[in-house]
């Protein structure tokens, strides 16, 4: 996967892959309970910051039944992914990034309130105005993680390459 496409338009930072299937921390005394994610990435600039990316192949973004008054509930997969990324960001910041091995390995990359990104579903699932309205308002009001669909992500390199002169 070309991780630079995550950065284009997402706070306008380019993202580089640090580790696939990273371990963020969270084990207890018997070694169980560790938290893993899909990708640990970092921004690209003179000063670099960590960013956690989760992809959810489940196509469901919203539940198909209208909840009430034109509003739809988000799917369990999306709410779970949001919770997972939020917990992983906190665990990575407070524990995983502070281990001696990771401090040495990532000495030039900062972990300060890491950004999370969730990639899930396709926009063609949003088949009514109310669904589009619910989804866009929900993700615009969410501070962390940022939510992007697979088709939106796919459009980024097409746009960038199409605009290269």
Characterise this structure.
This protein is of the alpha/beta class. It is built from five helices and nine strands, in the order H-E-E-E-E-E-E-E-H-H-E-H-E-H. The protein has helices at residues 4-7, 76-94, 100-105, 129-141, 150-162, and strands spanning 15-20, 23-25, 35-36, 39-43, 48-56, 62-68, 71-74, 109-120, 146-148. The strands form three sheets. It has a five-stranded mixed beta sheet. Strand 8, helix 4 (129-141) and strand 9 (146-148) form a beta-alpha-beta unit. The model has no long low-confidence stretch (mean pLDDT 84).
Concise overview:
Helix content is 33%, strand content 31%. It has helices at 4-7, 76-94, 100-105, 129-141, 150-162; strands spanning 15-20, 23-25, 35-36, 39-43, 48-56, 62-68, 71-74, 109-120, 146-148.
Cα distance, first to last residue? 24 Å
Work out the radius of gyration. Answer: 17 Å
Query: How does the overall form come out from the CA principal axes?
Result: globular
β-strand number: 9
Level of helix content? 25-40%
Number of helices: 5
pLDDT average, as an integer?
A: 84
Q: Which class do the helix and strand fractions yield?
A: alpha/beta
